[in-house]
UniProtKB/TrEMBL annotation, chain A:
<dbReference type="GO" id="GO:0005886">
    <property type="term" value="C:plasma membrane"/>
</dbReference>
<keyword id="KW-0472">Membrane</keyword>
<dbReference type="GO" id="GO:0016887">
    <property type="term" value="F:ATP hydrolysis activity"/>
</dbReference>
<keyword id="KW-0067">ATP-binding</keyword>
<dbReference type="InterPro" id="IPR027417">
    <property type="entry name" value="P-loop_NTPase"/>
</dbReference>
<dbReference type="InterPro" id="IPR050388">
    <property type="entry name" value="ABC_Ni/Peptide_Import"/>
</dbReference>
<dbReference type="InterPro" id="IPR003439">
    <property type="entry name" value="ABC_transporter-like_ATP-bd"/>
</dbReference>
<dbReference type="Pfam" id="PF00005">
    <property type="entry name" value="ABC_tran"/>
</dbReference>
<feature type="domain" description="ABC transporter">
    <location>
        <begin position="5"/>
        <end position="256"/>
    </location>
</feature>
TrEMBL record, chain B:
<dbReference type="InterPro" id="IPR000515">
    <property type="entry name" value="MetI-like"/>
</dbReference>
<feature type="domain" description="ABC transmembrane type-1">
    <location>
        <begin position="95"/>
        <end position="297"/>
    </location>
</feature>
<keyword id="KW-0472">Membrane</keyword>
<protein>
    <submittedName>
        <fullName>ABC transporter permease</fullName>
    </submittedName>
</protein>
<dbReference type="Pfam" id="PF19300">
    <property type="entry name" value="BPD_transp_1_N"/>
</dbReference>
<feature type="transmembrane region" description="Helical">
    <location>
        <begin position="101"/>
        <end position="122"/>
    </location>
</feature>
<dbReference type="InterPro" id="IPR035906">
    <property type="entry name" value="MetI-like_sf"/>
</dbReference>
<dbReference type="InterPro" id="IPR045621">
    <property type="entry name" value="BPD_transp_1_N"/>
</dbReference>
<feature type="transmembrane region" description="Helical">
    <location>
        <begin position="134"/>
        <end position="155"/>
    </location>
</feature>
Length: 351, 311
C-alpha cells in the first residue's frame, strides 16, 4: 500500500514559564492511502499536538520541533516556510475540529466560509466556487443548500455546523483529512450521523483520515488501524482487530477495561488509577509504569523499544521481551483475546 | 427593523421630554438672573424686561409654555448673550466649526486607534505593542486641556506649524483642536481593539481559517477584524460624549466659535434659553448616536440583527 504520510522520530516541545514541556517524545507512524488511522489516548497524551504539528497549527512562538520529520509528498513539513505551508493547508491536508459551535466565523455567511479555500487553492471564479460549495453542502447532507449559503453559523444546529466544517475540509478534495475529536461535542445520535457521513465521504473521495478520539466505541466503528498514545509517545499500534482483540500494552489493557460494556455483570466501571505523567519532567522509563500493576524494575529505568507482534502490530512494552515473565492480562482482556486467532488465549473459532 | 426604529423614536421622545423638564427646573433653582446688571434696574424696569421674556409668569406656566414651544421646534429667544436672537439660529450658526473639529477628531481618533490596536495585537509583546499601550495610557490619563496646551506650545508656538488659537485659516485652524479631541477616542479604540483582537486570534474559527490555508493578513482582516470591532461599537457612544464634553474645553482653549464655547459662556451669563436650547441639542445628538450604534451592532454582528420584537 502506498504511504501518503510518514512521521519519523517526531519530537516537539512547548516552551512555558514552568520550563520545557516535552509534549511529543519520538512519534513514528505511517499513513496509507485511503485508510483511517485512529489515534487514541487520554487528555494530554499528545494526540492533538501530533496532528496539529502535521498541519503546523501550533503557536510558533512557544512550540519547537526538536527532532524528526514529517514526510508528505517528498517534502518535510517541519522545514517548510509559512507560505509553502499555506499552500498545503486546506488543499492537500485539511482538518475538522472538535467544537462545531466555535469553529465557524460568527460574522461570515457560511457560503463564503466554504468558498474561501476553493478560491484560495483552485483557479476558478466566484460563481463556479459557489456551485462547488452548494454541491459540497448537498454532499454532506444539508437540505436546501442554495438557500443556506447566505446564512450565518448561529442559524444552524450543532450537527449541521459540523457538516459545514466537514464541507469546508473537503472543499479541495484533500489527500489527508485530520479529524480532531469531530464528534466529542455532539450528542450521541448526531455523533452516529456524522460518523456515517465521514465513512461515506471517505469512500466517495478516497482520502486518508487521521481520526483523533478518546472514545473507543468510535474507533471500533471507523478505524482501519489504531495508534494508542500515552505520555507523548505511541505505545501500541496495529489494526483495529489487533488492538481490540490482541492488545499487548498494559495501557491498552487499561483503556479497553475502562470501556463501558453492555453485558458486564457488575455495573462498576473500571478506571485506570493515577494521573498522566508530567511532561515537564517525563519519566525516564516506561511513562505508564507508575500506574501499571504489571510494571517491572526495568520499566522504571529504560524506555521500552517497540516489539513486533505481527507485521502490522507493534507494542512498546518490556512485557514482550523474551526474558520477561509471562503475565495474565485483566480478565476482560483475556475474554477478548479468546476470540483472536493467533493470540495465546485463542479458543478456536466460535462460529 | 422599521418597527424597531419606530419604537426607539418614541423612547427618544420620552427621554428628551425628561431631559428638558429636568434642565428647566434645575435652572430655575439656580441663583442669579439672566437680566444683565439686574440690580441696577428699578423694580418697574425689571418687571418690563421680565414680562418681555415671560419670566413674570408662574413657574408651571413658564414650563408648559416652553414645552409647547419645544413641540413646535421653537427653542425661544436668547435673553442676554445674543440679545433677542432666535436660539435655533444661534445654534445652527455655531454648529459648523464644532461639527468640523468633532468629526475630524472622532475620525482621526478611531482610525488611528484601530490601527494601533491591530498592530499591537498582531505584534504582541514587542516594542510596537508596548509603544501603543503607552500612547493609550497617555491618551486616557492626560486631560484634553493639558494636551491642547502642549499642542499649542509645541506645534503652534515653537514650530509655528499651525495657528495657536485663531479660527481664520479654515482646515489649518482645525488641525490642533481635532488632534486634541482625538486623543481619548484614539486611546479607547486602541485598548479595545488590542484586547479583542488577541482574544479573537486565539479562537477556534481563526485556527480553522488557518487550516484552510489563509495567510496572516487574510486572517487578521477577513476573519478577525470584524469580530474584534463588536465591543468597540459599544464604546462609540461614550466616545461621542467625550468628543462633546471635550469640545466644551477645547473650543475655549483654541477660541473656536463653536457650540461648546457659546454654551460655556451662556452658563456664565445665565441665559436660560440658550442653556436649554444647547442642552436639548446635545441630548438629541447623543440619543441619535446611541441609536446609530445600536443599528451598527446588527450590521456588524449577524447574531444580534434587530427584529421588531416578536414577529
Amino acid at each position: 500500500m502506498e504511504k501518503i504520510l510518514q512521521v519519523k522520530d517526531l519530537e516537539l516541545s512547548f516552551h512555558t514559564f514552568g520550563g520545557e514541556v516535552k509534549a511529543i517524545r519520538g512519534v513514528n507512524f505511517d499513513l496509507y492511502k485511503g485508510e483511517t488511522l485512529a489515534i487514541v489516548g487520554e487528555s494530554g497524551s499528545g494526540k492533538s499536538v501530533t496532528t496539529k504539528s502535521i498541519m503546523r497549527l501550533l503557536p510558533e512562538a512557544t512550540s519547537e520541533f526538536k527532532n524528526g520529520e514529517i514526510l508528505f509528498g517528498g517534502r518535510d513539513l517541519t522545514k517548510l516556510s509559512d507560505k509553502e505551508m499555506q499552500k498545503i493547508r486546506g488543499k492537500d491536508i485539511s482538518m475538522i475540529f472538535q467544537d462545531p459551535m466555535t469553529s465557524l466565523n460568527p460574522t461570515m455567511p457560511i457560503g463564503r466560509q466554504i468558498t474561501e479555500p476553493i478560491l484560495k487553492h483552485q483557479k476558478i471564479g466566484k460563481d463556479e466556487a459557489k456551485k462547488v460549495a452548494i454541491d459540497l453542502l448537498r454532499l454532506v447532507g444539508m437540505p436546501k443548500p442554495e438557500l443556506r449559503m447566505k446564512q450565518y453559523p448561529h442559524q444552524f444546529s450543532g450537527g449541521q455546523r459540523q457538516r459545514i466544517v466537514i464541507a469546508i475540509a473537503l472543499a479541495c478534495n484533500p489527500q489527508i483529512l485530520i479529524a480532531d475529536e469531530p464528534t466529542t461535542a455532539l450528542d450521541v445520535t448526531i455523533q452516529a450521523q456524522i460518523l456515517e457521513l465521514m465513512k461515506d465521504l471517505q469512500k466517495k473521495i478516497d482520502t486518508s483520515i487521521i481520526f483523533i478520539t478518546h472514545d473507543l466505541g468510535v474507533v471500533a466503528n471507523v478505524a482501519d488501524r489504531v495508534a494508542v498514545m500515552y505520555g507523548g509517545k505511541i505505545v501500541e499500534i496495529g489494526t483495529v482487530d489487533e488492538i481490540f482483540y490482541n492488545p499487548q500494552h498494559p495501557y491498552t489493557w487499561g483503556l479497553l477495561s475502562s470501556m463501558p460494556s453492555m453485558d458486564a455483570e457488575d455495573a462498576k466501571l473500571y478506571a485506570i488509577p493515577g494521573t498522566p505523567p508530567d511532561l515537564l519532567d517525563p519519566p525516564k522509563g516506561d511513562a505508564f509504569a507508575l500506574r501499571s500493576e504489571y510494571a517491572m524494575k526495568i520499566d522504571m529505568e529504560q524506555p521500552p523499544p517497540f516489539f513486533k507482534v505481527s507485521d502490522t502490530h507493534m507494542a512498546a512494552t518490556w512485557l514482550l521481551h523474551p526474558e520477561a515473565p509471562a503475565v495474565e492480562p485483566p480478565e476482560m482482556v483475556i475474554e477478548r483475546m479468546k476470540k483472536f486467532p493467533g493470540s495465546r488465549y485463542y479458543e478456536g473459532s466460535a462460529n | 427593523m422599521a418597527r424597531y426604529i419606530g419604537k426607539r423614536l418614541i423612547y427618544m421622545f420620552i427621554t428628551l421630554a425628561l431631559i428638558a423638564t429636568f434642565t428647566f427646573f434645575l435652572m430655575k433653582i439656580l441663583p442669579g438672573s439672566p437680566i444683565a446688571s439686574a440690580d441696577k434696574l428699578s423694580p418697574e424696569q425689571r418687571a418690563v424686561v421680565e414680562a418681555r421674556y415671560g419670566l413674570d409668569q408662574p413657574l408651571p406656566v413658564q414650563y408648559f409654555d416652553y414645552m409647547f414651544g419645544l413641540l413646535k421646534g421653537d427653542l425661544g429667544i436668547s435673553i442676554n448673550q445674543f440679545k433677542g436672537a432666535n436660539v435655533t439660529d444661534v445654534i445652527l450658526s455655531r454648529m459648523g466649526p464644532s461639527a468640523q473639529i468633532g468629526f475630524q477628531g472622532m475620525l482621526l481618533g478611531t482610525v488611528l486607534g484601530i490601527l494601533f490596536g491591530m498592530v499591537a495585537a498582531l505584534r504582541q509583546n514587542t516594542w510596537v505593542d508596548y509603544g501603543s499601550t503607552i500612547v493609550a495610557i497617555i491618551g486616557i490619563s492626560i486631560p484634553s486641556f493639558v494636551f491642547a496646551s502642549m499642542l499649542q506650545y509645541w506645534l503652534g508656538l515653537k514650530w509655528d506649524l499651525f495657528p495657536v488659537a485663531l479660527w481664520k485659516d479654515g482646515f489649518m485652524s482645525s488641525v490642533l483642536p481635532s488632534i486634541a479631541l482625538a486623543m481619548f477616542p484614539l486611546a479607547t479604540a486602541a485598548r479595545f481593539i488590542r484586547t479583542e483582537m488577541i482574544e479573537v486570534l486565539g479562537s477556534d474559527y481563526i485556527t480553522l481559517a488557518k487550516a484552510k490555508g489563509a495567510s496572516g493578513s487574510e486572517i487578521a482582516f477577513k476573519h478577525a477584524f470584524r469580530n474584534a470591532l463588536i465591543p468597540l461599537i459599544t464604546v462609540l457612544g461614550p466616545m461621542a460624549v467625550s468628543i462633546l464634553t471635550g469640545s466644551l474645553v477645547v473650543e475655549q482653549i483654541f477660541a473656536i466659535p463653536g457650540i461648546g464655547e457659546q454654551f460655556v459662556k451662556s452658563i456664565m451669563v445665565n441665559d436660560f434659553s440658550i442653556i436649554m436650547g444647547t442642552t436639548i441639542f446635545f441630548s438629541v445628538f447623543l440619543i441619535v448616536v446611541i441609536l446609530i450604534v445600536d443599528i451598527l451592532y446588527g450590521v456588524i454582528d449577524p447574531r444580534i440583527r434587530l427584529s421588531g420584537g416578536k414577529s
